[in-house]
Write a structure and sequence with these properties.
Blueprint (H helix, E strand, L loop, with lengths): L1 H16 L7 H6 L7 H24 L6 E6 L6 H8 L5 E7 L1 H13 L1 H7 L10 E4 L3 E5 L5 H11 L7 E6 L7 H14 L3 E8 L5 H12 L6 H4 L3 H10 L4 E6 H8 L2 H8 L7 H9 L1 E8 L25 E7 L11 E2 L2 E6 L2 E5 L2 E4 L2 E4 L3 E7 L2 E7 L5 H4 L6 E6 L2 E5 L12 E5 L13 E4 L4 H7 L5 E7 L2 E7 L12 E5 L5 E2 L2 E3 L10 E5 L2 E5 L12 E6 L3 E6 L13 E5 L2 E5 L12 E5 L5 E7 L13 E5 L4 E5 L2 E3 L5 E3 L4 E4 L1 H5 L2
Parallel strand pairs: 1-2, 1-5, 2-4, 5-6, 9-33, 25-29
Antiparallel strand pairs: 3-4, 6-8, 7-8, 9-38, 10-13, 11-12, 12-15, 13-14, 15-16, 17-18, 18-19, 19-20, 21-22, 22-23, 23-24, 26-27, 27-28, 28-29, 30-31, 31-32, 32-33, 34-35, 35-38, 36-37
Helix pairs in contact: 1-3, 3-12, 3-14
Length: 670
Amino acid sequence: VQSTGGSSAVSKCSAAARGYIQDRFLQLLAGRRRRRAPLIHRGYYIRARAVDHCVQDFLLKTQSLPRTQILSLGAGFDSLYFRLKDMGVLHHTVVYEVDFPGVACQKATLIKGVKELSALVGDTGGEGLGAITFSGDDYKLLGVDLSELSELERTLEEAGLNNEIPTLFIAEVVLTYMENTRSDALVQWAAERFPRACFLLYEQARPQDAFGRVMQQHFGQLRTALRSLPLYPDCQAQRRRFLAKGWTECSVMDMNEFFTCCIPEDEQRRVQTLEPFDEYEEWHLKCSHYFVLAASKGMEPSWTPLSPSGTVAGHAGPAGVAGSVPAAVCAGLSGVPGLRRYGHRSVLIKPSVVVTTGGFGEEHGQHCRVRSVHLLGRHAGHWGAVCVTQNVPDQRWGGRLYHTVSRLSDTLALVVGGRTSPSSTALGMLWLKFPETCDASGTGDVAVELVNLQPAAEAAALRWRHSTTEVTFKGEQYLLVYGGRSALQPVLGDWHFLRVPELSCAAIAVEGLVPESRHSHSACSWEGGVLIAGGLGAAEQPLGSVFFLRELEYGFQWQTIETHPSLVPRYSHTAHVHEGKLLLVGGVWFHASSVPGVTVIDLMTGLCLNYVINVEHLEWPLMLHNHSSVFLPDEKELLVIGGGGNCFSFGTHLNPEPVLLSLSSILSSH
């Protein structure tokens, strides 16, 4: 547990070095420097921002009072005191920090040895007295085990803590490491002993979904189990906990809601443009698994730093559920190396042959961008898979992610766009040519050829997280490339019609209200046009709109498809159309407290029904984002291949085996 403080200090330090947070003291306290990934930077930014938001609000609300105090529990190597002192906002506030004796002694030695830190604290006289490892006029550092409540109370009294003045308690990922009886006792003690008090809690939530299970496993392996989660699994349970322990007011937000509601839009944009970034799914999942809580009692005026703006109130209510869909491992594909990947694409090229390309995953025993192409086939009811070699120089295929693959015939498919790294310019187009006898028995290679594009068509290819869909106009076949993002544009809203097979750009008139720019949406061919659903919009907010680009006599027209109840906004899902119904599979959302399963939209009536995925027969967490899926109409089954991603600092999770979802009960019941 003690080592978690050191590693979080290093991560905060890295975030500060990249401009996410302004804090020159972190480097002095963290000591060692390590460059962390952009996803980690964002995660520690939102944590620092949430704590700072509440602390500043407390200081603002109490600035006219003669004296206040802050008590930081499990403070580790946090720089809060030094930042506040440097800003000149501690005129009448004393900061007390408590941590294990070993940590407190280490920090005290560090402060004494660094001139810039010791100068800020000023004259010290009382350090080294028992548990008080450092004592300045407005800063006290105490070495006490928080689970020993009587010892804590005695030491705080000795250090001068005053029960009668307004006090802010801070517990930033601390209580969850304690036995629940002890952390509950601490929460209750703070409410009972301090008539005017505020409590700020930042910690993990939602242990039971796939991301939550990976998160718990990670902390279990570190021997720092998250003990709060079984009793207090979500924001509502934590709120009830504080109200039951003597706090009179309590508000709580997960970090997606905090980012949307409490951070000004210009600051959101600043953070979103600090580094090349393309891990939206993992960022939003991380944020939905952490919360900030603000509880208070006896405060006049009342302390409510987490008041959401009206537009997003009720951010994460439950999504209505119509039933469930069973998931089972696809037996024949179990254990096939190379199918553990994400950001790849799979497409049906013949009734029982699937091609899977690209993405990031396992190849030759290591994690990398996958260059091999896999053919999956079903023969006499049994699935099999084979890795087909490509006689291609690496730079052609480039191990791309977030591309599209469109089947043009049994022997031909087109790869459009994709990327290697988020800062790279996107990649062009490739032909995939299959032998006539192509199946999963492994006979014959797949040829990969570069497409020589006309300059006008190049713009269509320089993107990723887009869609490429077959449309028909005046009996001719075209591909519609729509949306996505590029190295220069975080979100695109343009479209291109490409004639098949020569791939020249066609100018076709399109009328109607143009959909807002998006990437990571889904697109399906339907009645000669295209159905676009969901996606991530310009402000990195999921979209809940469904559009139909409909063929008219002289061109196409954008039409909105109204759904009822409204579609929960989502992105990074897959989609299929079957007999007038649009099926949306998985994805990421944060306007509902569950995990997206399968949503069925009746395209005639607009009725929108959500089904949860029953994973009881899977022995591992099923992550349904960055996956690929293929609909098998005869069996009314979905074959889900790959999926998962980099779960913040908890490790990479790749779904280990392809899964079959049986939709027969929900499709026949409609």
